[in-house]
Each structure stands twice: as C-alpha cells, then as structure tokens.
Amino acid sequence: MIRASLTAVFLVLLLSCACWAKPNGSKNKKPKQVVPAIECDVRAGKINVSEFIVKCPAHCKETKQQVYGTGVFASISSICNAAIHSGVITNSGGKVIVRKMAGQNIYKGSNSNGVRSLSLPKWRESFTVSVGKPKKGVNYPSTLDYVPSRPTYVKTSQKEDKSVTTALPATAAPEPTTVTPEPTTTTTTTTAAPTTTIPPPPPSTTRARAAAHKVRDAGLRRPEAGSAIRRQPSSPVGPVFNRVQPAQPERTPTMSQSNPAFPRRDWPPPAFPRPDWFPGARRPADVSYAVPDSGYTWSETDTPEITARDHRPDISEFERWFYNFGPYPPRSTDSDGSHKVPLDTTHTKVEPVDAWKPEANLYESGFSMREQDPVPRVPEPVSQGDPNCKVDLAFLMDGSWSIGKRRFKIQKDFLAEVAQTINVGVAGPMMGIIQYGDDPVTEISLKSYSNSRELKSAVDKIMQKGGLSNVGKALSYINKQYFSDANGNRGGAPNVAVVLVDGWPTDKVEEASRLARESGINIFFVTIEGPDDNEKQNLVEVNFVDKAVCRTNGFYSLPVNSWFALRKAVQPLVKRVCDTDRLVCSKTCLNANDIAFVIDGSSSVGTGNFRTVLQFVANVTREFEISDTDTRVGAVQYTYEQRLEFAFGQYNNKGELLNAIKRINYWSGGTSTGAAITYAAEQLFSKSKPNKRKIMIVITDGRSYDDVRAPALAVHRQGVIAYSIGIAWAAQDELEYIATDPDKEHSFFVDEFDNLYKFVPKIIHNICQEFNSQPRN
Length: 777
What we know:
Keywords: Disulfide bond, Extracellular matrix, Glycoprotein, Neurogenesis, Repeat, Secreted, Signal. It holds the Pfam family VWA. Residues 1-21 form the signal peptide. It comes from Amphiprion ocellaris (Clown anemonefish). The strands form eight sheets. A six-stranded mixed beta sheet has the order 19-18-17-20-21-22, with helices on both faces. Strands 25-24-23-26-27-28 form a six-stranded mixed beta sheet, with helices on both faces. The chain is of the alpha/beta class. Helix 8 (471-482) runs parallel beside helix 9 (510-518), helix 12 (607-622) runs antiparallel to helix 13 and helix 14 runs parallel beside helix 15 (709-717).
C-alpha cells in the first residue's frame, strides 16, 4: 500500500515537472528586420508597396537626383534626396521609412540641407519620409516589389477566330521541310500537318509594326495547311521587308476546282495579274491567284518586260480596251501576236496599296495617266522684322544644375515662343542668347539669325551646361563682350538684356549691373520661383532684383511663381522690351544730351588762343556719341554781339561736327557774357528735345561788360546744367553765378589757355556722374 502511494506520488511529480519544463529554444525570438538597400536614383513611384523601409547609400546629394515638393513629395522624387531634404538622414546615408499617400494639387519647391527641391503643379501620388526606426507590431517587407518601367508584351492569342496581330516570320514554320535547289530561285515547301499554328514573332518585333500588320492582314485568310510558302523574289532581303506569302500553285486543269472557296474560270489566267484598281466587279479567279496583301508593291527591276495575252472573252469592250491600253503605254505587238508591256526599270519603288473596293473609280482612286511635274515651291517672303520693336535683345538663360532638365526644356520653349512673338528681322528686333552657369557662354549672337523660324530651330538645339547661377559674371560678360560690333550690335537700336533666373543668383550682381546700365543696357529680370521669407537667409545679396534692374518701378522685373506658368509671361515681357520710349537706360551720359558751347571771341583772347579753345571744344565733343537720336552739339560765339555757329542737329555725324568746329572763325571784340547766355537759351535750348539733358559750357577769359546773374538764373530754371570755365583774367564771382550748384563741381579756372585740356576728363566725369546718380524709381 505504501509502495503504491509512493509510486503514485512519484508519477504526479514526474508529470508536473514535464509540464513545467520548457524545451530548449521554445521561446521564439522576434526575427531581425531586414532592410533592403536602394540606390540614390530610386524613386518612390517605382516601388509597388504602400509603406516600406529602405537603406540609402552615402553621397546621394552629389548625384543631383531631382526632388519635387517640401514635406510631402511627388512620387517621381528620389527617396534618398527627399530624406536628406527633410533632414531624416544626412549625406552619409541611413534608414528611411517611406509612406505613400494620395497625390497633391501643388508641390512647392524649396532649398533645405543642401538639396534644392523643385515645384510641381500636380502629381498622381505622393509620399512622406520619416526616421528609419521600425514601429512595434509593424512588419515591413524585406524585399521590394518594383513597378516595371515598360508595359509587358501581350502575346497574340492562338485562337483561329481572332485576327493576326503580328507579322509572319521571314522563315518557314519549324516543321519538316524539303528544300529543292534551283539555278536562280529556292522554293521551300512545307509538308502538311494535322494542325498548323503560326509561330510567334521574334522578340525584336515592335509594337508599331504589329499594329500595322493587323490593319493590313485584317481582310486576309491564313494560308491553308500544305500551301507553299515563299518570299517575293523582287523584295529586298532583310527582316523589315520580308513577307511570307503563299506561292502560286501550278495551273493545271485538275486544280481548277481544287479549292471550293475559290471557284475557277475555264480560260487560262494571264501571266500579267489583273490590277487591284481595275474598276468593276472583282472575280473569284482574280482572288485565287492574288497573293496576300503585303502592304507594299514592288517594281520588278529584274524583268525587262511582261508578255500578256487577252484571253477574257466575257468582259465588256470598255474593260477590254481599258485592260489593254488603260494606264499602261501602248504595247508593241510581237510576231506571234502577243502584247509586250514594257516596265519602268529605272526605279524600284515601294508604294502603299489601298484596300480594293468593288465600287472604286479610277478618278476617285487618285490614279493619273502620267506623273505630273512637281510644282515649284514659291520661296517664303523673308520678314524684315517688326519696325516698331527695333531693339538688340539678349537673353541670359539659366543653365545651372538646380534648374533640372525638364525646366531647362520649359525655358527653351519660352525663348522659342518669344522669338516667334517679337518677329525677328534686320529692320526690327535682333535676338541673341547667352547661357550662364559657372561662366557665361554665347549660344546665339545678335547677328546669327535674321528670322524667327531659324532662331527657333537654333534654340531647340541648345544643351544645358550646368554649374552654379553666376548672374553677376554674365552681366559683366554682356557689358564687356556681347554687345559689340563683332556680335552684331547695331548701335542705333536700344540694348536690352533679359535675365532668367531660377530662385536666386549665386554671386553678387550690383556692381556688374551698375556698369551695364551706365553703358546703356536695359536690364530686365524674370525671376522664377524666387525666394520666400524662409529662404531669404540663403541669398548672397538681398534685394538683388532692385539692385540689378534698370529702374525699380516694377517695369523691369517680372516675378513668376512657377516654371509651369512661365509661358504666361511671354506677352507681358515682349510688350515691355518693345516699348522703346520707356527703355530709359538706353539713354546714357554720352548719348542723351544737347550740349551748347558759348565761346568768348573777344579781342583779349587772340587768334592763337582761340584755336586752343576750339581744340578744347573738339576734345570734349569727341567723347560723346553724336547723332540725331544721341548727343547733339551747338555753338555760339560772342563779343558785344552773338553769332550762331551751328545749331543742334545741324551735324549728326561726329566727323562732320569736328570739321565744323575747326572752321569757326575768330571774331574779336568786347565781352558781353550775360547777353550771350540769353542768346544761347533762345537759339538753342528753346529747340532742345524733351528727352535730352540740356548742358551749357561757357568759356570766357575776362569780366563781362553786362550782368550775368539774371541770364544764368533764367537758364537754370529751364533745367539747363551750366558749366563755367574761366581763363586768365576771368572773374571768379561771375564764374560761380553762371555755374550750376554745387559750384565746385561745375566751375573751373585755369591760368593759361594751354592748360584747358586738363579739364576734359573732369568735365566728362562730372556729366556722367550726375546722369548716373539720378533716382532709379
């Protein structure tokens, strides 16, 4: 009894231990997450998973893979560069969790962590990125399912009731074949088989070719099993032109009714097949001997002539005449009475074959009895351009890497549309293009193309250079090199430079723009996706647009919110650059003046010194651009009286003007400077143009016999800028009365006539400094 109890207790303890004991390794550990690695160029849209984790390699920032959006990115963005842009990883790489979502209506571009993201108006799918730390309970795929880059090839169904959608192979079907060699041709006969299937097309068959074959073969029958297959002898040898066609069987009386689907006539068919364009009902006999339509007809160049007899007793007289003499030349009759039809053996042509229609008409089919001579093309009249928009226009296009290939193409389309709109021509606007990146490069000079059509073609061929966005270098380039006579600068047309910039420049533009403006270049800025408030801290130069443009009144700047809205700026920009009256920067200190010299011819001057004074006048004049639309010069000589030597615009050529100055004769007499100033105001400045700066330079060697205060004050009120130059015995107080304030900038004194030349640079500098210091608003 005791032994039985002990045994029971022992069994109970043994079972309990067995239940409590845990087998070795029974505790399942969570498997480690496998993170698939990707390359820098992998886009989120290429991965067919809604949420996944990936590992990005290092140095993706240097690959310049495109990113679209900020925070929420379009699915065409690079996953790794989007993660760097968002700050999820650094350029050294790391793990990233990607979560897809619905598409957005707009993706805003920005610059963050050294990655420039671009804007996009709309995309079908979006994604976000987060730190690659897997969440509890979430299993991410260890392998990624990629969307194929091209749609898969759909094989043609083998059902007999469906049309053939691919071309027949050039070789025979892979059944047992018997090849019989002949002297000139090789015929391949395929033995009959219980079931015959057309072999699939080779992998190189393109979809476009298959579609074309589907149209051509739609009304054809497959060749019956056991029918002969051969290539047309005259077709070129090659995979494109090979056509598999049933060979014509031997015409024997026993075969006349061998195929019930194609009943035969009793007369033997002619050696020359009946043409498909024949107007009349097609007979079954014609169909039975016709090969399947291959889509092309081939002219037989290896056969000089074809013999044909008229064995058609049941056709009408018109049909008989048409068949014998219709579209072919009159046929010579041989001794045996056969008609020989010569063929044109000079050409081998491939022509598309129209589908045959029973009701087809010869004249409706486009057939002609003889080939007409080509009508000579009338040359298109060459446009001379829009005379109302006569400007020399240079576009500075952004070729930096930040713009991307797609936006560079948008930029070229914009320039091509501008070229079409402004109507380029020698009598109107001439247009050139400079592409800038690290350094500027001339793509098209001003004299390269004289019409919009050729210019558009040249714009399409421009390739992106890459680099930074150094606009300052580009502005210096156009000022020093581009607007030159060698590049086609016409001189009489305003110089206009339009800068296209993506975001902001990567160098300073203020100094280069100032020098360009002072040279007469009207600078426009078209800023696409300019910096927002958060991005202004990244600017090399704040307010770069106002520092660069010709005037800050808004006329010379066009901000564009998106690259996809750039096309809308074509018309406003063209309207502005063609408004020559408002291109104020074309007027420089050297080409926008009416200058009057008031010269003392009193007896105290003397003949020799008077020639020195005239040389001084010529030296000052030589520094200006002389024409009716540029600077004009007039001269008055005075003693007690006044004499007009020449008026404004009387000499519009610099050479003629300098010769006129040399021809001024010394008068001699007293000194009435006040009266001379009044005379110059009446004879010269009263006829000055409104857009000209009026400048008077008075040269005297002594005190005036009359008052100079009132006349000087009168011309000052008329807007005349007066300079006074005294020599020897001139009165300093009178010089200050005559000169415009401040006196020290407009009044000069020399002891001797021979020292007059020293003041030429000083006077020119002061004139230009005053001109360029005018307000730019």
